[in-house]
Design goal:
The protein is mostly helical. Among the domains are: 35-88, Electron transport complex subunit B, putative Fe-S cluster (3-methyladenine DNA Glycosylase II, Chain A, domain 3); 102-165, Alpha-Beta Plaits. The chain has six helices and four strands. A two-stranded antiparallel sheet has the order 1-4. A hairpin with a 7-residue loop joins strand 2 and strand 3. The mean pLDDT is 84. Keywords: 4Fe-4S, Cell inner membrane, Cell membrane, Electron transport, Iron, Iron-sulfur, Membrane, Metal-binding, Repeat, Translocase, Transport.
């Protein structure tokens, strides 16, 4: 009987020591945040536009880390979906949107602007400058095209315009497989 009590006492002491060690390790080596969510957040475009259904890129990254779909970010497009799929080692699905739109920026018709500052308050990236009761304008290089400034404008003087393709943005189109095959046939 005493050996049984001694064995139970040793097991109890061992359990208490392991519990204390685990409690210390949980406090000492605590990880703030989810490292996967942080990596996904770094891949998102940081437009904070809410088109994915979340309040911004960080909440969407946290949802992705918890298992939500990775294809809800129209500003990021197929490139962002592919990067996130590569990070998570999953198949890259198609974008869950009608179609990828060309890059756009907000444009304020300055003659119609009344300076209400509602667009400035709505802009998540501070791409709109101006003062109360003064004309506002958009810094095109900072605008992410999120479209959040259009709705609050009481005089409807903001419109979204496609970015013009300049020399720096223009790229040769990739040849199709059919063109490559026909070129090889002519060379032979």
């Amino acid at each position: 009987m005493t050996t049984l009590l001694l064995a139970v006492g040793v097991l109890l002491a061992l359990c208490l020591a392991c519990g204390a060690l685990l409690g210390y390790a949980a406090v000492r080596f605590r990880v703030d945040g989810d490292p996967v969510a942080e990596q996904v957040n770094a891949l998102l475009p940081q437009t904070q536009c809410g088109q994915c259904g979340y309040a911004g890129c960080k909440p969407y990254a946290e949802a992705i880390a918890q298992g939500d779909a990775i294809n809800k970010c129209p500003p990021g497009g197929a490139a962002t979906i592919a990067a996130i799929a590569d990070l998570l080692d999953v198949e890259a699905p198609a974008l869950d949107a009608p179609a990828e739109t060309p890059p756009r920026v907000a444009f304020i018709r300055e003659a119609e602007c009344i300076g209400c500052t509602k667009c400035i308050q709505a802009c998540p990236v501070d791409a709109i400058v101006g003062a109360a009761r003064q004309m506002h304008t958009v810094i095109a290089s900072e605008c992410t095209g999120c479209d959040l400034c259009v709705e609050p404008c009481p005089v409807d003087c903001i419109e979204m315009r496609d970015l013009e393709v300049g020399v720096r943005e223009w790229k040769w189109p990739l040849p199709s497989a059919q063109l490559i095959a026909s070129d090889r046939g002519q060379a032979a």
